[in-house]
Each structure stands twice: as C-alpha cells, then as structure tokens.
Automatic annotation (TrEMBL):
<dbReference type="InterPro" id="IPR006103">
    <property type="entry name" value="Glyco_hydro_2_cat"/>
</dbReference>
<feature type="region of interest" description="Disordered">
    <location>
        <begin position="21"/>
        <end position="41"/>
    </location>
</feature>
<dbReference type="GO" id="GO:0004553">
    <property type="term" value="F:hydrolase activity, hydrolyzing O-glycosyl compounds"/>
</dbReference>
<feature type="compositionally biased region" description="Polar residues">
    <location>
        <begin position="21"/>
        <end position="34"/>
    </location>
</feature>
<keyword id="KW-0378">Hydrolase</keyword>
<protein>
    <submittedName>
        <fullName>Cellulase (Glycosyl hydrolase family 5)</fullName>
    </submittedName>
</protein>
<dbReference type="InterPro" id="IPR017853">
    <property type="entry name" value="GH"/>
</dbReference>
<dbReference type="Pfam" id="PF02836">
    <property type="entry name" value="Glyco_hydro_2_C"/>
</dbReference>
<dbReference type="GO" id="GO:0005975">
    <property type="term" value="P:carbohydrate metabolic process"/>
</dbReference>
<feature type="domain" description="Glycoside hydrolase family 2 catalytic">
    <location>
        <begin position="185"/>
        <end position="295"/>
    </location>
</feature>
Amino acid sequence: MMKKYLLPLLMIVVAASCGQQENKNEEAGTTTSDSTKEREVWSKEKANDWYATKGWLAGSNFTPSTAINQLEFWQAETFDTATIDRELGWAEGIGFNVMRVFLHHVAWQVDKEGFKQRMNEYLSIADKHHISTMFVFFDDCWDSVYQAGKQREPKPGIHNSGWVKDPGKLYYEEPALIDTLEMYVKDVLTTFKNDKRILLWDLYNEPGNSGYGNKSMVLLSQAFSWARQIDPDQPLSAGVWKPDLTELNKFQLENSDVITYHNYNKEDEHAKVIDSLKQYGRPLICTEYMARTRGSLFSNIMPLLKKENVGAINWGLVAGKTNTMYAWDTPMPDGKEPKVWFHDIFRKDGTVYSEAEIKLIKSLTGAK
C-alpha cells in the first residue's frame, strides 16, 4: 500500500512448494481460540468458476475525499454518505465495478452495531452504483498510533500523513487485544458472510510492512483461521507485495482462494509478475497499481491487466485528505498540486486529472 517496495518477480517465492498444503497454525506457531472446524482453501476449480461469473473487474482503492484514514471514514461522527454517493457515482461513470475499502477494528470496538450498520449503508450506496466491494481487515502500513474520535488534519503535501495501521504495535504490547480482534473479524464476517454485494475479503494488507517481517505471520495465520471458521460465501485472500518476504508470501499464496497482489512497476516487470503467479492456476486480481512518476500508468498497465484477465484495482479514486496525489518520497510542504499526480483520478469537485486517462479507462471498461 503506497510504499517503495514494488514487488518484482515472485518466481523466487515458492515454486517448489506450489500446491502443497501444510498445517498453517503449526507452521505459524499459533492455535485457534476454539475448536470450530475450518473450511479448506477453495479448489482451483471453484475459484475459477467463481471468477468466471464476475466479468473483468476494474476499480480503485476507495477512501472518500473527506476522510484522512479508516477511522474518519467509518466513525459515526464523520461517516459521509453524501460524499460516498457522489464519488462512487463518478466511479460508475467511468465503468468501474469494484472498490477496495479498508476497515478498522477501533471503529467497530467503539460502536459495534453502528459500525456494521454503516458498512451496510456503504454497501447499499455502492450497489446502487453497480459497484461490488472488497473489504480489508488488517494493515501494516503507516502510523502505529491511533485513537477513536477526531482525527488529525493532513500535513500539507505529505502522502498519507494520517493513515493508521490496524492493529499495529498495540498487537504486540497488549496480548488481550487478540480476543478483540477475533471477535471483530468473526462478527463482521458472520454479519456479511452471505452478502452478494461483497466481492472478496482481503484479510491483511501488506503483512510484514513497516519492518515487521515475519512477526506478522501470527496475526496473518489467525486471520485466515478465524475467517475459515465462519466460512463466508465470498473468497478469502491476502495480497503478496514484496518478494523477499518469502515465508509470508508462501503462506499467503497457499491460503488464498483467489490470488491478489500489488505492483507499482512498469509494464515489462508487471507482466513478469503476472506470468509467475499464473503457475498457481487461480484467478488473479491486482489490488494496487498506478503510480505515475514510477511508470505504472493507466495507459500501460490497465490494458495489460485486461488482456491477461487480471482484476485491476488502482490507488486511488478522488484526491482528498489522504494526500495520495503526492508521491511517497516527494513531499511538497507548500501543499500545491503536483504537476504529475502520483495516485488518484478525480479532484474533489469532480474534474479529472487527465481527460486522456478517462477516455482510455472508459474504452477498456465499456463505459459510455
């Protein structure tokens, strides 16, 4: 998620072990909290049959422009249905049919029923715009310090200056948090396990980021275990993103019903990653791409993804409080609009960064 690691070839990960299934909890040194039977990973046949019904998936990672992070998105005081409706309407207008949306356990912890009601409200708005949703539970990116309530204001010109991890370092400092996280995942999944508006559950964004490495294996394994106990209709996944996290990559690829991945490279390198992932025989969805100053563009990557029938979910949709029009490593403290945007498609007033990009996107999605 918006980082400098760009996922080169994944061939190094686990070619020799492809298709082998091991005891995931023993491998990660964990046990489940109860004896509920866990369902198996979907067969390749089931996964491909599911994917064949979806058509080509194209969309964005979505945070409304009025939210700096997941908490400002989902807390009752700042849940902004008017902006969500307006901005998803713009997405519908260019033919996007899926959004990847991050949750946060603190918003659930403060107001469990209200949180789920807001999820349902979001899903109703998205469905009205013919957009399915991929929800993300955990995230190892950006700030470890977070709290409920009012969120800080963006730092001018600083990429994602207010995004927060979930659960971050609190997971290692408060052992009892694991019980809360288990209840959170299971409650949300139980509530929405049969909801056809949800495309897929992305259990963990970029495990091992922020220097955590294999420390993230325990929570990653637990997340899959909890989800399999609930056994939702929707597939489960956790996207691979960095090639030298070999143990995490191996686990993610062996345990995902549908393979998801991140890549912010140019076309030739991205194509090699697709080829390396095809060996698993499962549907592929790229859940993060498009960083203009690094050569990952709509013009070269989106046609490649459609040609290969790989789902295409870029970062992000509307330039707002997340400041993702600014590059990871190129702050602009004066807060001026950069000449070349890093991410995003629309401004908050609905005007677009590039008419040529919009024309290309609509030509690929079939939007009028």
